[in-house]
Fold each of these.
Amino acid sequence: RAKTGLNQTICFYEARMDEAARTRRALAKDLWAGIERKQFSLFYQVQKSVATGETIGYEVLLRWLHPERGMVPPSEFIPIAEECGAIVPLGEWVLRTACTEAARWLHPYKIAVNLSPVQIGHVDLVALVSQVLAETGLAPSLLELEITETTIIADKTRALHILRQIKALGVTIAIDDFGTGYSSLDTLRSFPFDKIKLDRTFMTEVETSPQAKAIIRAILALGRSLNVPVLAEGVETEDQLALLHLEGCDEAQGYLLGRPKPQADIHELIRRAKTMQSPGLAPDAANA
Ligand code: C2E
Ligand code: MG
Ligand code: MG
Ligand code: MG
């Protein structure tokens, strides 16, 4: 009986895996069509100085409005896009669209664009970035590229070579989701980063775990001694923000400071802040 039960369980999981594989294949097919049919759009999430509350920039977050499935989260479609190669045209579209939109903003905020490891491995990224900057007229210093450690680990020598050339253009590099990867400290030592983005999991646990708090402190100390600013991701509560302030964290991003918003909303926030002529007031003081 026990054996039958186990077999049934296995069959159940196999059926579920089949279904998951079918969904992935279907999404892969839809991705290519979705690019053609302009189903993608960009959302922007504010990044602020912890000390002053001033807006520093916006992270660019890709959104896919699927005609039948509705909003598909990036955590679901980015891995599929990486697997089937659609990330190459998609990533290029993100970079070009974000630079075009930001170049039209009435205030020169920085934009942070996420890069996939595939883009470092298979695309002439340096040529693409310099071409897009030239096309859109966005100042290179207003573009930041976010990469994770996975990006670097695949081919360290190549990654280092490419990142150095990108930095030579005047573009900055942030290390994303820091603290969750493999060789964090070695990566920091050998790569030319301009910002460390502390992974969201540390914020989630900070109020309940003394270990999480200790690690945050250690990473902030590391940032200070390497002279690299640290941004805390996933800040959702006033208590978390107060803690970051106390510990001397440089920047923060999270639902408390602002949810990711469509381009039109950001443009309007900046326009309103401009017409109010109050430079001290952050444009998105009224959070959604
Ligand atoms: P990420 O780069 O670490 O982006 C931050 C994610 O955290 C975003 O999820 C954002 O909406 C979410 N977030 C921000 N503040 C909070 C908060 O206070 N609480 C919580 N619970 N979440 C918060 P999103 O937009 O779903 O993106 C997920 C991941 O997908 C991103 O993680 C990034 O790795 C990837 N991604 C998004 N857009 C792109 C893109 O254009 N290209 C590539 N290659 N990857 C992208
Ligand atoms: Mg990111
Ligand atoms: Mg992140
Ligand atoms: Mg993440």
Amino acid sequence: MSGGIFILSGAGLSAESGLKTFRAEDGLWEDHRVEDVATPEAFARDPELVQRFYNMRRTQAAKAEPNAAHQALARLQAEYDGTVYLVTQNVDDLLERAGAQKVIHMHGALKDAMCAACGHRWPAPMEMHVTDPCPACGTAATRPDIVWFGEIPYHMDAIQTALEDSDLFVAIGTSGVVYPAAGFGQMAQQLGIRTVELNLEASGARFDEVHEGPASRIVPAWVT
Ligand code: BV8
């Protein structure tokens, strides 16, 4: 059995499926910086504005199709004779829809809803409103099951274990700006793991190997 392959993906993996990245030239939504909308403070201040932002993202993600990069990663996970850990910062479900069996969504997922009062989770409807009562406790405190800036990412223990089980770390389509995800490459290097970047343009972070180009071309090429 070969060693694990730890694959961290960011918005660049889904860019060619038509889903905007965070730091694209505009990177704004309804004149709001994403960082100003994806926060608990924004939700407390104007919950319907935040719900509208995620309703738009959820609708866009549902209309998007997995691209060749998602498909190549799902194939790798199915065919590799070791474990392929697909750790994603993305909240879309394109890897799952490409056939990936296990995806670690460290920043949550658009397809899930959560109750801010009792923590109950359920499949999110396409359109969510904060007045929607929680199916478990009935409180009108519905929120997207998304990790906002200032909140603790999900599955951090599983991610640490996956890194320690891997002998290759690959970062795909991520600018390496947001922590703790941005620190995983350095953790890999400290563990003596070989690190590879696949990105439209090199992010500038230190990797043993860098491949530049669109994910839909360079990910399938790298996987084969
Ligand atoms: C936490 C869900 C504590 C929401 C997201 C000061 C210094 C350091 C850190 C901080 C600081 N102040 C605050 C912090 C912490 C903060 C942070 O890092 N802030 C940044 C802005 C400095 N982090 C947090 O708050 C995190 N929580 O720290 O808790 C803690 C931590 C650990 C343990 C205990 C406690 C929570 C952060 C999560 C926020 N939620 N997403 C939503 O989606 O709406 S973050 C969101 O932005 C994404 O999930 C992703 O993580 C990030 C965007 O990054 P990318 O995915 O890389 O996208 P980006 O647009 O930046 O880049 C696109 C890339 O794609 C580019 O490289 C481009 O070249 C490439 N590309 C484009 N097209 C293509 C392509 N590549 C290939 N092919 C293409 N076609």
